[in-house]
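Budget justification note: compute hours in this period were largely spent on complex prediction jobs such as the one shown. Inputs:
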Amino acid sequence: MSWEGGRISSYEAAMMIAAIVLPTAVMTLPPGMVGEAVQHAWLSAVVATLCGLGIVALAAAISRSAPGITLIGVTSRHLGAPGRWIVGALYTWWLLHVNALILRSVSEFVVIILLPRTPVVVVAASLTALVLWAVRGGIESVARLATLTLPLVPLSVLLISLLSSQDFDLGRLAPLLPTEGIRPILRGAVAPASFFGEVIIASIAIFPFLNDPKRMLRSGIVGVLMTGVSLVVVLLVSVMVLGPASASADEFSFIRVVRLVSIGEFLQRTEGVFAVFWLFAMLVKLMIWFYATVFTGAEWLGLKTYHPLTIPCAVGTVGLALLLHRNIIEFRAFVATTWTPYAAVFELVIPMLLLLIALGIKKARERGSSMPRVPQMRQAKR
Amino acid sequence: MGLIKRLFGRGKGPAPPPASRHRPIKGRDLLEQLRNQFAGQDDIRFRDFELGGWGVRAALVYVEGLVDTSRVEEGVTKPLLRWSSEVEAPAPGVARRIDALRTSALPSAQTTVEPGCEEAISAILAGDVVLALEGETRGLSIANRGGQARGVEDAALEVTIRGPRDSFTETLMWNIALIRRRVRDPSLRIGLKKVGRRSRTDVALMYIDGITPPGLIEEIDRRLDAIDIDAVLDTGYIEQLIEDEWYSPFPQHLKTERPDRAVASLLEGRAVLLADTTPMALMMPATLDAFFHSPEDSYDRFWPVNLLRLVRFFASIIGVLAPGLYVSFVAYHPNILPTELALRIHASREGVAFPVVVEAILMQFFLELIKEAGLRLPGPLGQTFGIVGGLILSDIGIRAGLVSEAMVIVVAVTGISTFTSIDRELGTVLRLLGLPIMLSASIFGLYGLIMASLFIGIHLVTLRSYGVPYFAPYVYYDWRDLRDTVFKAPLGSMRRRPSYLRTEDVQRQDSPGERSSLKGPSK
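Corresponding output:
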C-alpha cells in the first residue's frame, strides 16, 4: 500500500503513540503545570488527556477514511497536487522544527544529568546518528524498539511512586478540588494539551502502517491513556513529595523525586537508571518524529523512497536544534508562549479542515451529485 | 552499511557455464573413457576380468579407500565371476547386457545404471564401484561405500548432563539416520543437493512437511542454488554464503552437533541443513533467544531450567557490558557507585600507570591470549597453561602496576560469562562487541555506553533471519511465545509451536483431558 512495506501490530502502535508524548510528559511538563495550577495540576493533566483523546480520535478518523494513506496522501487525494505541495511543505517544516525542539531538549537533559562538561552539539549529533541508524531499518524497527523500551518509563514511574510513598505529604494536595475557579487549571492545561496534540502524527507515521486498521482508535486510546495516567501520577507524586513550590522550580522535578528514593543502604542514586530509561523512550520518540519528517518530506516531493532525505534531514535537525534558541531559557520561553498556537494549527486546524473536506466529499458522493472523480494518488511500489 | 556493501559488494559476475570446467573425455566406450580419464591416478583401481559365458571383457572401477574392499570382493566380484562362468545363454544385445547383469547377477540392493561417462565418474569419486563393459557406453554403479570414517561418538562441544550422548559425525547418511531414528514420521523430508563445483559435496536439507512453512524451504533452496564456489568443506561455508546479513556480527544460523537438538528445532518448525564431511548441522531461521537454550533445558523440569537460563542470560549481558560499565563508572561517574566501593576501586587503582581504558584493553588482550594459547597447546598442557598463565600474569600485572585488582575481576568475570554461551561463536561475538561499547564508554561515559549498546540493539531489532525477526519473541508477536524464552513454562503448558516461525501446524500438544485418574483418599 505504501512505500514502506512495513507493518505494525496494534500493540506496537499503542506503544508508539505513547512514545510520542509520554517521555516529554513525564519529564518536562510537570514544573510548568504546577507553576500554573499549583496543587490542582493533576486536574490540568486530566483536561489535557481529554484533549489528547480528542486529537487521537481525529487522527484515527482521518486515517480510517483512507486506510494505508498518510495525512499528506489524504490531502493530495482531496485537494490534488497543489494541496499536497502546500500542506506537505507546511507539515515538513513543522515536523522538522518539532524534531529540532525535541532533540534540543533531550540533548540539554543529557548534558545536565550525565555529561556536564560536554558541548550540546556533540550530544545532539550522536543522538541523531543513532536515530538515523534506526530509521534506516524502517518503521518496523522503530516499532519494535518502542515495544521494548517505552514500557520501562511508566513502569519505573509506578515503582518510584511506590518506593517514595514514605515521603508522601497528603496535606500538600489540599484543597483537593478547585476553590479559586477553574481558570488556573485550564491555564495549566494549555501547554500539556498542545503536547498531547502531537499524537496527530499518528496519522502520518503509525496508523497508515497498522496491519489491522480497525484497531486504530483502540491503540490510540491506550497510548494516550498510558501517557495521561503517567502524567497524573508524576504530578501527584511530585507535589506530595516536593511540595508545589519546589516542584515548579526545578527543571526536571521528577528526577528530584527519584533522587530521594533509597532502598536500604545499597540501592541509592536510582536516578541514573531512571534517566537511562527515560533517554531510551525519548530516543524512540525522536525516531518516530524523525521518521514522520522524512516520510512527509518524501511524500511532499513525490519521491519513491524516503532514504535520500534522511541525511539532509538529520543535518537540518541538528542545525536547527542548535541555532533556533541560544539557551534553555529562550527555549522555555518559546515553548511557553509561541508553541501552543503554532502547534494548534498543525495538530487541530489543518487536520480538522481535512476531515471536514473528506466527509463533505463523501456525503456529496453519497447523494449522487456530479462531483468530479477524485484523482487517485500515484502509488509507488516498494 | 550501504557504503561498506558498495565497497566490498558481492560482485557476482555471470557464472561460467559448468560444462566448460572439464576437458572432454575421449574413448569409444565407457571402459576406455574411464581409463583415459583416470590415467596416472594410482588410487583408482581397475579390476579387469572377463565375463566368461559371454566372452566380454569388463572392469570394476573404484577408488581404493572409499570402498569396502572385502565387501566388493565378496558381494560383487565373486558373484559376477560365478554367474558369468555358469551362464550359458549367449550374450544379449549390447543394450540389454547391463540390465541383465543388474537383475540377475548382482546381489547388492543399491545398483544404479549410469547413463554416461560423467555420471559414472562422479559415482566412482563418491565411493561407488562402477562396472564398465567393453563396447558399452553405460555403466552400472554398485553402492559399496566404506573405507575409514569416524564413528558416532559422544558430543564433545555441547556437553550436557542429561539427555542422549550421541553426536553427528562426518558421514552424511549416518547423520541423517540419527535424525530419522528420532522422528519416525513419513512427513520428515530430506532434499539432497550437490554444492561446490569441485567438491560436489552432498548437502541434505531436512524439514517436516506440514510444520515447516514451505516458503522457508523455497527460500533456502534458492539460496543454496545461488552458491557457486569451488568447495564446501564444512557447513560453515554454506552458513556464510546463505546468511541474510553478511556484515552482522551475530550468527544467523543455529549450529549443533547433537541430533536431539536438531530434531527439537525441526519440530519447532525450523529447517535443518547437513553436509557430508561436517559433524555440525545448521538450523534456520535463527533467533537470538534460541542461542540461550541448551538441549538439556527441554529434558529437565522447569524450575532448575529457569535458574540456569537466567544465569546464562545475565552472563551474556555482563559479558557485553561489564568492561564498559566499569570504565564509565571509574572514569566518569564514581558517584553512582556506593561510596565505599568507589573508594576501594580508587585505592586499587593507586599506582596504575595507564588510564582505565588502556588497562581494560590490556587485560582483555591477556585473557584472549591465554584462551587462544591454551587452545593451541595439546590437551592437559593447555589446561595447566591456562590456570598457571592466568594466575601468574594477572598477579604480576597487578604488582607491576600494569593493571588494578578490580580490573582483573571485571575482565575475568567478562570472560567467564561469555563462556557460558551455548554457542561458542556467539560468546566470542559478545566479547568482541564489548570492545566498541567500552571505547565509547571511555569517551562519553555512561552516555556513550548507552549509545553504543542502543546502536547494537537497533541492529538486533532490525535484523532478520529468513524473514523471522532475530529478536523474536521479545519484540511482540504473541504473548504465548514468551513461555519459552528467558523463562520456561512447564512443558505441559507449551501447547503451541513458536508463532514467529509461522509454522503450518501450530499445535504441539492437545490439551490433556483428565490429568490423573488417581483421586486422593476419600473419607
